[in-house]
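Quick review question:
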């Protein structure tokens, strides 16, 4: 595991911290201020627990069962019971990085000193993360309100030494065995602690943060592939001029146009349609080429909104009831996932539209009636060879899937808990489908890259020199194992290698080796 350490304090955390812990195995450490805040909040809860008046989550049942007062002798059992009964997930296992993000973000809220959890419980949460133990969490079980209840319950169950977990070696074993193997003592939950470990938007937030990181890479990648397509189609870079975008001042649009212009700097192909094809001068390029900055830019602005929502949520302490700075313990509705769910759905929409415009450019490259002199399907010997015909089919299937995934989950509330919890966010579902959409978008961009680089190579074979950044991308892609033009071959390995190249940041890095940092 990476020895980088993320310190968890009392004032929230950063998106970079979430990614470091979830994906890079960064270690977690509680700050002295967090330990002090945890102890102070626990004193408040202990004092309330000693009083005869019922307090939700401390001395009552939960949800629709909150009317029952629980005697002191049964309260430890109450906290164990809520974890066991709420660990009711079903379906496939959730990815390791999602579970680590979920655990880390719950620890972040616990460490805020607003939940009443004891310092030793928070330390056990950190110890489990640092040991590389990942509780088994299932796909289905969260409605995105009252927290991501079932997913968080499976994590809390592992802290108690129950249920199953994956060890650092990737093998799933009983959680108690894994804790013992790493010298970690299972927690014995006390008043409010079971509830506090379950009651947050941590799963959907963790997936939002990671999706934003992935989409930032993909939007820069899509600016590059759009530029490559413009070049391969002998389009004009004049539409990218800063003064044209300044008069419609959406920030993302200007950024995307500037990225494309920098990638195309020095190209011997752009704007040479009449020279190289002998056709009449082309007045305007097709929308999928000419409007790329507008579409990509609108998506970038949506990402910026998503980052704003994520940052606010990362600064929050989501629990119910919550321990306030003045010592009051108050019920609230901050666990409702609507703010996160809405932006997750919004991102699925822009991902689908970005995939759609990428596919339209790819199809244009393959169609001899619209590609301005490129061979049909970019084939070596069209008719004998099919070229990239079916690669575009695959891309089109992915685009269709993204359109289905763009249907919002957050409008589909369904009541639960005997109508006590009668409006829910479905934010977990929105996050799960966004992850699928991001994976599909990566593949769509990879197919466009594959087609565009082949088209640029075919176009430049007779002499015109592509932009230096385009040449750098082609060289890096070939070095990554993706072959160039030639007779038909088994395409799936090339497409998989192109997907890895895009997802891992290879495409952006290759272009930036010439252009310098792109936004």
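Suggested answer, residue by residue:
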């Amino acid at each position: 595991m990476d020895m980088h350490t993320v310190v968890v304090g009392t004032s929230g955390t950063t998106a970079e911290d979430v990614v470091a812990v979830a994906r890079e195995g960064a270690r977690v450490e509680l700050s002295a201020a967090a330990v002090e805040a945890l102890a102070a909040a626990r004193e408040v809860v202990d004092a309330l627990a000693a009083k005869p008046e019922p307090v939700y989550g401390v001395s009552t049942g939960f949800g629709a069962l909150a009317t029952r007062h629980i005697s002191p002798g049964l309260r430890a059992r109450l906290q164990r019971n809520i974890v066991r009964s709420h660990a009711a997930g079903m379906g496939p296992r959730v990815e390791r990085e999602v579970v680590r993000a979920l655990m880390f973000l719950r620890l972040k809220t616990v460490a805020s000193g607003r939940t009443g959890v004891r310092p030793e419980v928070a330390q056990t949460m950190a110890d489990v993360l640092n040991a590389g133990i990942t509780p088994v969490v299932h796909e289905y079980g969260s409605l995105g309100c009252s927290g991501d209840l079932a997913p968080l319950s499976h994590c809390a169950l592992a802290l108690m030494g129950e249920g199953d977990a994956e060890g650092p070696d990737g093998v799933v074993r009983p959680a108690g065995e894994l804790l013992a193997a790493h010298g970690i003592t299972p927690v014995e939950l006390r008043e409010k602690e079971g509830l506090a470990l379950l009651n947050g938007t941590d799963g959907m937030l963790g997936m939002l943060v990671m999706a934003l990181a992935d989409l930032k890479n993909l939007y820069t990648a899509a600016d590059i592939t759009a530029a490559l397509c413009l070049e391969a189609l002998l389009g004009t870079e004049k539409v990218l001029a800063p003064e044209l975008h300044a008069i419609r001042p959406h920030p993302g649009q200007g950024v995307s146009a500037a990225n494309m212009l920098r990638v195309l700097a020095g190209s011997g192909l752009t704007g040479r349609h009449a020279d190289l094809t002998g056709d009449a001068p082309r007045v305007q390029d097709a929308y999928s080429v000419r409007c790329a900055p507008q579409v990509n830019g609108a998506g970038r602005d949506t990402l910026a909104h998503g980052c704003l929502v994520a940052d606010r949520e990362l600064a929050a302490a989501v629990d119910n009831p919550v321990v306030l700075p003045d010592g009051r313990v108050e019920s609230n509705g901050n666990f409702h996932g609507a703010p996160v769910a809405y932006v997750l759905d919004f991102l699925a929409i822009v991902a689908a539209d970005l995939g759609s415009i990428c596919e339209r450019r790819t199809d244009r490259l393959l169609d001899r009636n619209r590609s301005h002199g490129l061979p049909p399907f970019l084939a070596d010997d069209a008719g004998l060879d099919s070229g990239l015909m079916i690669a575009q089919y695959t891309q089109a299937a992915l685009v269709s899937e993204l359109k289905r995934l763009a249907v919002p989950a957050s409008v589909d509330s369904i009541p639960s808990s005997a109508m006590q919890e009668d409006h829910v966010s479905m934010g977990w579902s929105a996050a799960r489908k966004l992850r699928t959409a991001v994976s599909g978008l990566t593949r769509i961009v990879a197919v466009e890259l594959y087609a565009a680089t082949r088209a640029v190579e075919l176009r430049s074979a007779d002499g015109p020199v592509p932009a230096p950044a385009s040449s750098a991308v082609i060289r890096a892609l070939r070095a990554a194992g993706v072959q160039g033009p030639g007779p038909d071959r088994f395409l799936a390995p090339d497409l998989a290698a192109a997907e890895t190249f895009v997802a891992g940041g290879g495409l952006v890095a290759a272009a930036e080796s010439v252009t310098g940092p792109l936004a």
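Why it works: The longest strand covers residues 5-8. The two ends are 30 Å apart (CA to CA).
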